[in-house]
Amino acid sequence: MSMRRGAEPTAPDVLVAERLACAFPAGRSGMAPVREASLRVARGELVAVLGPSGSGKSTLLALCGGLDQPDRGRVVVNGLDVAVLDQADRDSFLRRIVGWVFQSPGLVPLLTAEENVALAMQIARAPDREVTRMTQMALEAVGLTERGNHRGDQLSRGERRRVALARALVKAPMLVIADEPTAHLDARTADEILVLLHDASRSDVAVLFTTHDEARCVIAEQYAFFPALNATLNGTSAALLLTGRVLIAKGRIAAHRACMIAAVIASALFLGCYLFFHFKVGNILFLGQGWARPVYFAILISHVTLAIVIVPLAIITLSRGLKARYAKHRAIARWTWPLWMYVSITGVIVYFMLYQWYPSTHFEELKKRYELKTRIS
Questions:
Q1: What is the pTM of this model?
Q2: Helix, strand, coil % (nearest 5) of the chain?
Q3: CA triplet 89, 94, 96: central angle to 5 degrees?
Q4: Which end of the chain offers a freer environment for a tag, N or C, measured as fewer CB atoms within 10 Å?
Q5: What is 2-223's CATH topology?
Q6: Smallest Cα–Cα separation from 111: which of 48, 140, 167, 153?
């Protein structure tokens, strides 16, 4: 079973696997972990292969990534028929076109995180002047800039998995294959890994990964629209608040009242959707680095703090207006309106910073700065 997060309808297929079959060697009871398997992964698409342990997921990935040869079927990656590659071309293919994240991160324990990532660049025969710069960008993309000088055996399990993902992405591959990237991780760390894979696909990388945790993938798909919905509700609240301000300035009290009631409804819907989304999915890690981090957290902290304050203020303000206690209504509205407007606008900004601008810009910049040749030479 597979799940997809769609690419553009016209995006070309990076991986095409047709009717793959693979059986264990003779003497293993003729077991066939892969039978008549076909799949396609387009550029910018995230595809999850779901199934319990022992169902052949890892074998399928090995066939798709060129580590093993199928008994039957055909694998084409970026226009290359993997079966016809000789050993030299296969080695070049594995170095340049496919980035692997294995179940075991496979870091060299005595090397630092930075050195482990740089090793992938050196194996890919990148120019020496690019290795340091691209390694730092890859670690920044997975949120590990501050851990770059720590050895592999000094990193947590989740950090080692993120270094492995940085190592796969640093060479700007056309296809990333991750075998159970969330296995043996706590829920929060597993979500962080899925976010990183998602953002890698948004930078036009084809991503194929396996997992036995179907529920987590279903949750990710089912609630993926909530962040955009929440931003829309915040934007709607801001528009209604501004309209209401203009209307009351013109003395149109009835229209002003209707706008403010609508703003309360939009904000209440946002609060409900926000709490529901984070209850179901958990917290989303912000992976921006440098100046973006203090800016983001300053906005986020002020947004959350004032969002808590604005709830009773909005209720009191609305109540006084509906009861025609206009003097007291105006007195508190002087504080309520600007705080409410700030909360609504910063809610939209938080959405763009968390879901649109970071960390995908890091991956996109990574591809721009070091575009490896995708043809075997």
A1: 0.64
A2: 55, 15, 30
A3: 90
A4: C
A5: Rossmann fold (3.40.50)
A6: 153
Query: What are residue 313's DSSP bridge partners?
Result: none
pLDDT attached to residue 374: 30
Find, among 195, 206, 132, the residue nearest to 169 by Cα. Answer: 206
The larger pLDDT score, comparing residue 243 to residue 5, is at 243
- Backbone angles phi and psi of 10, in degrees to 5: -95, 5
Q: pLDDT tens digits, residue range 288-346?
A: 767 888 999 999 999 999 999 999 999 999 999 888 898 999 999 999 999 999 999 99
Q: Pick from 219, 228, 188: which is nearest to 350 by CA?
A: 228
Give the domain 226-357 fold. Answer: Four Helix Bundle (Hemerythrin (Met), subunit A) (1.20.120)
Please give the average per-residue pLDDT across 225-248, as a whole number: 93
Classify 73 as helix, strand or coil. Answer: strand
Residue ranges of the chain assigned to CATH 3.40.50.300? 2-223
| From-to residues of CATH 1.20.120.80 in the chain | 226-357
Q: Please write down the HEC assignment for all residues of 37-64.
A: EEEEEECCCEEEEECCCCCCHHHHHHHH
User: Which of the residue ranges 111-120, 123-132, 364-373 would you say has the lowest mean pLDDT?
Assistant: 364-373
* Separation in Å, CA 65 to CA 7, 69, 76, 137, 184: 20, 10, 10, 25, 23
Structure-block tokens of residue 345: 């606008």
Q: Which residues partner with 22 through β-bridges? A: 34
Q: Where are the beta strands (DSSP E) in the chain?
A: 2-5, 13-22, 34-42, 46-50, 72-77, 80-81, 98-101, 175-178, 206-211
- CA distances to 230, 350, 365, 368, 375 from 168, in Å: 33, 29, 15, 16, 18
d(CA 256, CA 246): 8
Mean pLDDT of 54-80: 87
Supply φ then ψ for residue 323, to 5 degrees: -90, 5
Q: How confident is the model at residue 257, as a pLDDT?
A: 92
